[in-house]
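Checklist before submission:
- one chain only
- standard amino acids only
- sequence pasted in full

Submission:
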Amino acid sequence: MFDPVIAPSGTLLGLLQRGRGDGTLHALTAPRSETLEALNHCVLHDPRHDWQVENRSLYYARLYLDLHGELDAIEAHLFDVEDVLDTDESRTGLSLAVLGHLASYGRRDALVLLRRYAAQGANWAWALDELALRDDDAGLRALAAPVLARFATDPEGEAELAATVRDAFEPRPWRLWADDPRASVATRVRAAQEAGSFDRWQRQMRPTGPRPGWSVQAVFAWAQQGIERGAALHVPAARCLTAVAGPEDRSEILRAAEDGTEGARCTALRYLADGNDPDALALIERAVATGPAPVVEAALDAFERMRSLAAVDRARRWACRPDALGAAAGRVLACRGGVQDRDLVLAALREAVRGEGPDAPTLWTLVDGAGRLGIACAAPVLRHIYRETASSHLRGRAARALAATDPSYGSGFAVECLWDCEESTREIAARHAETGDTRVVERLRRLAADPAEEAEVQTAVRSRIGPGETVV
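Returned file contents:
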């Protein structure tokens, strides 16, 4: 999936792409045709950089409901000829998730569209998962024949069916079909379930990787084999070293950390750092200076995991370095530093924004650190990150940090956060938004009554609503 093109944060499209609460507030006052055009663009061209940690579907579904939006654009997108040519689930996943939420709100047209796509579309498994949570038994039973028809009845097709049943995210349809009164359906699904269970058992009986009795060198060799296959195994290999290495092996592990193969070096650095070995910090510094990219990455990760006072003290010395180790030191202080480290964390935060922009991965930890340490001077930078980042997850972290550092948060960003796409951000807002704004009172009541809202958000909302629905 290509990185999405995100519009400027001051535009309606940019706000909706980011999932900001201000996007909804602006959309409800803008011309309906303009809003629907921007909304459809977002749903048909997923704006998330990482769909595994960012939410948008409920946010967009709620806006469709508020606008009484038609689903013609989604229908055309799902059944376009491109669906046959581009079968990557990222092309249609967000659209299907939005339809799922709309179906849960009682939109019959969304439910019908999901059923049709599950029967005909390339990303049918996603649609079936959405229906598994929302459709009735009759609707799911009607899909058994078209779904099973996707799999040939030869051995290869049956094996593919068994793998699909085994790996299904939502098992409800398959369990329902296993008890279908039609023998042609039930017999085939039961056979697939049995084959999938047998395959899972076989894989458990044929484990790969370390065995009892392995030597330190055998563990290093296994880690290097992973590097050669393109799989990073140094983390589990380091855990294996904990089991097989003794005091007499320390010198061998130190040599591996200094000049071993990539796999051995990564493994040894992780092992030594996790054990707070007295030589670990010096070896990490050497690895960052001399190692190839995988070794540098492993060394930085190992350093950031260290919990010792010596590691925090070394981070204070390294924090001013203009390299990757200096950036890692800033993150260590953000996680484990004290109030005396506020200036170093603030400097690292400012430098990351200046050098890498508001979407830099390092900001996740630094933003959390600014909130944890209560760095009031960080509020202007945090507000900038909040406004400009394309990551709704990072924006939520910025909101949490602002709640701890910015006295104006309750009457400012907290209000729009009640409409944010991330439930954790809505939860923070529900606890801090000042109720002098009538929009806040109405929104809290609506969230409390919304069956699709997350339990944590509703708990936060109800903590603000006293007897007789008095908002406190």
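Reviewer check: The first strand starts at residue 465 and ends at 466.
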